[in-house]
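Q: what sequence does this backbone want?
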């Protein structure tokens, strides 16, 4: 099923997820279509979180916000139900991870607001088209992600560290990747750091905080992009009473074409 899913259109991919037929990282699923990170918060926190996203556009570029209590997001996809159309979710209470269900119907409340945040899986299509390697796709694993020593800009009750994703590249390919991904500000844009992981507080590049480690070959350097898992680090730091997110690497596949987000 996993081998065939990458050939399906986004609605078919969501139906496969909804039925339980697919529960895996969504990198290279429905190629050509935007994927999104997820944060669902009670209404009382929604304005502060939206302000946090506005102040931190690199890790938290908003591509969609639901109506209060409405699990359907027709602007992002046909028949899209936020309660069932991601492969796996995370349930947080007082900043602690308490469950990782395959759907959230039993957790849904009428006061919840869903925030969809651009995902770097979208700019990977442009990287591949430019002949740039994407190691976690080559290895069939989840992208490695790390909490850093870089602080986000606070908003209301929300604050915490920036999370980054990493792809190893040669220095020449890294320069090209800056040019290619810089055209996609709605899905994190250009890298935030190249080279020495310790300079941004990462002590062991082979021990990511989220996702899987990937091979870094001789002559390559780690290249880091702001990551949409940042809200999960912020939630753990801020400790809201209740929140739902996606499980890292298991995104919402939308009906929006990646090309629609390219700037210029």
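A:
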């Amino acid at each position: 099923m996993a081998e065939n899913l990458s050939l399906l259109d986004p609605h078919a991919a969501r139906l496969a997820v909804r039925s339980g037929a697919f529960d895996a990282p969504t990198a290279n699923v429905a190629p050509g279509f935007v994927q999104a990170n997820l944060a669902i918060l009670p209404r009382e926190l929604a304005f502060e979180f939206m302000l946090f996203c506005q102040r931190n556009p690199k890790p938290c570029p908003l591509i969609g916000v639901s109506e209060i209590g409405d699990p359907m997001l027709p602007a992002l996809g046909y028949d899209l139900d936020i309660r069932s159309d991601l492969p796996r979710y995370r349930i947080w209470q007082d900043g602690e991870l308490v469950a990782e269900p395959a759907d959230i119907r039993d957790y849904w409340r009428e006061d919840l607001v869903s925030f969809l945040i651009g995902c770097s899986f979208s700019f990977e299509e442009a990287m591949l088209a430019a002949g740039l390697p994407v190691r976690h796709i080559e290895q069939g694993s989840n992208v490695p992600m790390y909490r850093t020593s870089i602080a986000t800009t606070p908003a209301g009750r929300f604050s915490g560290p920036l999370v980054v994703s990493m792809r190893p590249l040669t220095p020449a390919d890294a320069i090209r990747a800056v040019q290619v991904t810089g055209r996609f500000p709605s899905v994190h844009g250009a890298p935030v750091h190249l080279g020495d992981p310790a300079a941004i507080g990462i002590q062991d590049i082979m021990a990511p905080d989220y996702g899987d480690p990937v091979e870094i070959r001789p002559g390559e350097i780690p290249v880091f992009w702001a990551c949409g898992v940042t809200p999960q680090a912020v939630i753990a730091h801020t400790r809201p009473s209740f929140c739902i997110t996606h499980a890292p690497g298991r995104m919402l596949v939308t009906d929006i074409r990646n090309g629609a987000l390219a700037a210029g």
